[in-house]
Write a structure and sequence with these properties.
The protein has 459 residues and is mostly helical. It contains 16 helices and no strands. It is globular, with a radius of gyration of 21 Å. The two termini are 32 Å apart.
Length: 459
Amino acid sequence: MDLLRNGLGPYTILLNLGIALHAIDIFVITTIMPTVVADIGGISFYAWTSMLYMVGTIVGSAAGGHIRARLGTRRGYVWGGIILLVGTIACAIPPDMGTLLVARVVKGIGGGLVIAQSMALISDLYGPSIRTRILATVSTTWTVASLFGPGIGGVFAEIDYWRGAFWAQAPFVIAFVAMSWQLIPEKSGSETQAQLPWRRLLLLAAGVMSVGLTSQFKTPMTSALLIVLATFLVWQTFQRDEASETKLFPSKALSIFAPVGLAYWSYFLISITYTTLLIFAPLFLQELHQVTPLYLGYLSLVFSTGWTIGSIAVAGWTGMWERSGSVLGMVFAAATTVAFTLSILSGTLVWITVWVTLVGFGIGITNVLMTNYGMAVAREGEEGITAAAMPTIRALGVAFGAAAAGLVANSAGLDGGMSKETIQHVAAWVLGLTALLPAIAAIVCYRAVGWGWKFRTGR
């Protein structure tokens, strides 16, 4: 296997370990939260443990490129692991909910730093011919995390020792830090003494907090205003970053007239799509098909499995296959999302399972190809920061996707009752609009195929 040859084996293991540590925590916390609030209280902040972790992750991943450039490849990666370790231990010892929330932010920052710098290392260490294969391997790691994360959390919740879920992670984080120090090649940081751009990071965090708070309000008007405020704050972050010499993001990160901008918009749209499906499909299934919680967990797993299969299927694609695959993956995802919607409204569980798996398959195809594309079209001198910022864009898509889907659902009448007719109406609106997103992403990818790939190849 190419990922284990020519000295790449240790890096492949290390990168997937770092990503697994971040991914597993996302699934663990949702499983143990009922036990947490039963022990230390704070039920009114139930959802904040996940929201603040996301805020920390976005801030950490946004800062990842700067930290890497400032401290160097090895020290930047190691410090990300150390912060992740501090956050992990802090999550295991809090006496109250307030302390746990602070710990979640710290852990999120550490996870964001690790994920961002992992993507940068993939860009550094793996050539274009095998880069899609390591990206497909990363997708597999996320699928494995979605399988084992809830199980790990469930075991410790069952024995009424939720803190053990974090203590159990600590040795693996320590091993990750030690391996990073031993394996990561030393590349000196910049000689500049530029400080971390705290103002832009705080502005970005405020934007993410604003969009995250939409889940606390039922009225569509309040949610809409918070989304508008969040959009303004995030946009200002990118505008100020564009004019700065010390960048968090690559040049023209949001431009539809630049190859990198096209790649970033595809990540954003993909994230909104799967976030909406995974948040609201369980509700619709429970109310319209009376499924069990076990089936809902199974549905999430088959979606992730479909994503992984799609990623693996196109790993190693080049030339015309690579160019057309990114577009066709989104076209396929749009069509299967429509089919999934119709099955939710009037189909059977067998077809619902088939269609959601195929949606994941289409998304997996485009995600891995456009990630490789984004790394390949990075401007000279911005290769590391372009790759490092990719997780930030994806996380922003998750945050805005959850908020926008909630706004659509409440506007369609979800806050007015849970009758079958109401749920069918809400499902038609939420899932119907969701199907438009991969269709729009297909247009974005087509534009990249039209001339973005020419930028990459120099033609």
